[in-house]
Amino acid sequence: MQLCIFTFVIGLGNIQTGFAISGNNQTAPVIKAKFAWTDSEAVLFNTLISSAAIFGIVTGSLVGGKFI
């Protein structure tokens, strides 16, 4: 049972990594419409969101081993 839980938790991390690497392409139009961003604002803010996600992945990979 513990192995199933471990596999599930690892899978959750992979889902988030894939979302971060793809740059939230599928949700970008929804976020743009919700906040009424112009095209240039949408590019800027989606770039910031994607960069923050990649930074989080890098930080987690560097310090994650100390928690385990």
Radius of gyration: 15 Å
User: What's the number of helices?
Assistant: 3
Distance between the termini: 19 Å
Order of helices and strands: HHH
How many domains, in number, for the residues? 1
**Number of DSSP-assigned strands:** 0
Shape: elongated
**Broad structural category:** mainly alpha
- Unreliable runs: none
Question: Per DSSP, what share of the residues sits in E-state strands of 2 or more residues?
Answer: under 5%
Mean pLDDT, to the nearest integer, reads 82
Q: Provide the helix percentage.
A: over 70%
Q: Report on the biggest sheet.
A: none
Provide a descriptive summary of the structure in words.
This protein has helices at residues 2-22, 28-35, 39-67. It has 68 residues and is mainly alpha-helical. It is elongated, with a radius of gyration of 15 Å. The mean pLDDT is 82. The protein has one domain (2-67).
What attributes characterize this protein structure?
68 residues; mainly alpha
Could you outline the blueprint of secondary structure elements for this entry?
Blueprint: H1 2-22, H2 28-35, H3 39-67
Helix pairs in contact: 1-3
